[in-house]
Amino acid sequence: MLTIKDLEVSTQDKKIIKGIDLQLESGKIHVLMGPNGSGKSTLANTLMGHPGFSVDKGDILFENDSILDLEPFERSQKGIFLSFQYPAEIPGVNISSYLRMIYNKKSGENLSPVKFRALLKEKMALLDIDESVLDRYLNEGFSGGEKKRMEVLQLLVLEPKLAILDETDSGLDIDAIKIVSSAVNNIQKDSDMTILLITHYTRILEYINADKVFVMQDGKITKSGGKILAHELEESGYTS
Predict the structure, then answer these.
(1) DSSP 167-225
(2) CATH number at residue 202
(3) 233, 199 in Cβ contact below 8 A?
(4) CA R_g for the chain
(5) What is the pLDDT of residues 185-227, one digit of tens each?
(6) How much of the chain is in helix, strand and coil states, percent to nearest 5?
(7) For position 75, what pLDDT does the model report?
(8) Residue 181: domain span
(9) Which among 37, 41, 42, 209 could bridge 16 via Cys, Cβ 3.0 to 4.6 Å?
(10) N- to C-terminal Cα distance for the chain?
(11) What confidence score (pLDDT) does residue 240 get?
(12) pLDDT tens across 68-93, in order?
């Protein structure tokens, strides 16, 4: 699904990613772990085409085609989704209208507000989101946990081929982590979606069915393995 070849990335003349080779298999859940400042979020933003990051070397192939020259919206249209670490508040953008717009754009359909609400109701139930939220503005006045659930709701609406979840578990209590994890597991199972989950901690891995774990330190992938690797990190830390 995704191949990263010898990738080097800089921002403001500072090299953050220092040569990464990585492959994400179709239909699998991959976890990227690492300490603060290791380059995890830089990698996520680079994959989505954030203009603040410069690719100095290497290539990114999505379904065997390079995406380096594509704008973020073009990458989205190809089926790449990024759940933000810090979702923005967007006053004036009604949640229901926004979700219906992105669904219609992705599917090529033109569902009416009534029909779309019926479709959305099932997806909101997976995340235990009250229907009254739909009349609010996107993330305005939301808690950190509510913003993260809204990101996952957008994921459920779009059903992309590749979902990059940047610290979706941060700011969530244990009940919210269980709900979000269950939703991610369900959509991945039903749609064969490829997922890259970025996290600091192993607690979400108690509920996410991870296939592979990568460790990132100082802009490089230093280790990879199965789910057990995450538990080893919990016991011994990254310095080991």
Answers:
(1) STTTT--HHHHHHHHHHHHHHHHHH--EEEEEES-SGGGGTS--SEEEEEETTEEEEEE
(2) 3.40.50.300
(3) no
(4) 18
(5) 777 777 788 999 998 777 777 788 888 999 999 999 998 888 7
(6) 40, 30, 30
(7) 95
(8) 2-236
(9) 42
(10) 31
(11) 66
(12) 999 999 999 999 999 988 889 999 99
